[in-house]
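Chain A, query sequence.
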Amino acid sequence: MSKPKAATVRRISQGLFLAAFLYLFALTVWPSGLHVPADLFLRTDPLVILSALLAAKMWIVGLILLALPVLALALIAGRAYCGWICPMGTTIDVSDRLFFRKTKSRPITERSRWKYYILAAVFVSALFGAQLAYLMDPIVVLTRTLTLAVFGPVTALANAVAGEYAYLQTRIVVLARLPQAPQVPQQAYFGMAWVALAIFVGILALGSVEKRFWCRNLCPLGALLGVVSRVPLLRRRVGDNCTSCKRCVRDCSTGAIEAEDPKTHRIAECIQCYKCAAVCPEDAVRFVPQVSLAGREARLDLSRRRLLAFGAAGLGWAAMAHTAPAAKTTVIGNPAASPQLIRPPGALPEPEFLDRCVRCQQCVKACPTNGLQPALSEAGIDGLWTPVLVPRIGPCSEKCNLCTQICPTDAIEPIRVEDKPAIFIGQATIDRSSCIVWANDKQCLVCDEVCPYKAVEQKIVEGKKRPTVNDHTCTGCGECEKNCPVQPLAAIRVFSLGDRRHWGRERQRQWRYGMQRVEHGQ
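Chain A, predicted structure.
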């Protein structure tokens, strides 16, 4: 393949994979008939999958299978994933080209090894049951940023455009025959959107220091692929006509080429960008399959002291997570830092859920009512950015199971819509001091009318009909809290007291339907 053609093919590959990532991201709201999982990039991310399985202390073949092709690619073509596929890498390349064109690419330095130390911290933390990959994994960071900081403004703009279109439709005769205004998602509002955006902007801004700073120095996924790809099949080979002009050294995106000897490069740092081949005036650089180790610098030269220090940091994070208030407070057998800690339906029991959840925010984005929000303090340090249901913002819709379909690590297991009446994520409780009926003797049937599971029952108390909650039929969906007219706090609120995830599906089913038969004398 000629040098210009190789560069063109790489750019096309980057563009196509970035477009595919954005398209699949959009599918969590606008599904199509494609039989492709919307979380495909996350499911093929070996760092996400391995850290989740390591934290959960289990080996799930179904999860690891999709990540194997990326690891196999590393064995064949080194870190080609970083240079040809990774959407974060493509975004950084675009940012560097637009805003930091004059930034120079420097040879490899000591900070290029930071990513390996970060990888050690991630895996040590996971080994002791605490997730850390979500802070640094590039696919997770990009997905979280798009969800929290981009999706909200986009839906606002889409709603504004659709509203104006509908208004013109009804006011101008010329437009009367146009189709109906396009359907757009409900306006989305997310907590910590500015934090997610600041982290992402910070990653791009590092391009002012050196090109692909994140990929070279900080990305733990790149480090994992670098460790795997120390002896790949496809490697850089320099011919004898090399004049050591060092143009390749100056243009290498990741500083993989040794400044002292341009014929030698560190394969663990090479992302197969082919820039060295493109700038070589002697056409001495080729990327060809080879078995010989000539021209390859295999060692990583990691400092044992720093490796141990970062491993200790990972252990410290795990210890802090497990001794935080969230790990000490117990609600019906589940760790919970707050009575507002309401998980999505299908979520694993709390300890397993925290081990498997990578905080990608896919479920948060998929929620059509905007009720799922990233946790701040509800679940303690270990539960930061995990999804929690905030019923006052939006309930868990009776006919929806989108969040259970797009979890890449199965922290939220797939469920059928018809199973939701027997999945208990919380329980509604009536505050009699603020309820219109209980406190003021006025009529109000809102909670009774909106409850999809008929869990609000009218009972005669002291000669008057009062609303009460049947804990055998209340699933904690939050429809009552969302629609309660009492402001600012609803008079009926959902708490995690009714969370029965630790029971398992069959026991929850017996709790609902078995007690129903008893109550009806069957």
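The longest helix spans residues 138-171. The first strand starts at residue 234 and ends at 238.
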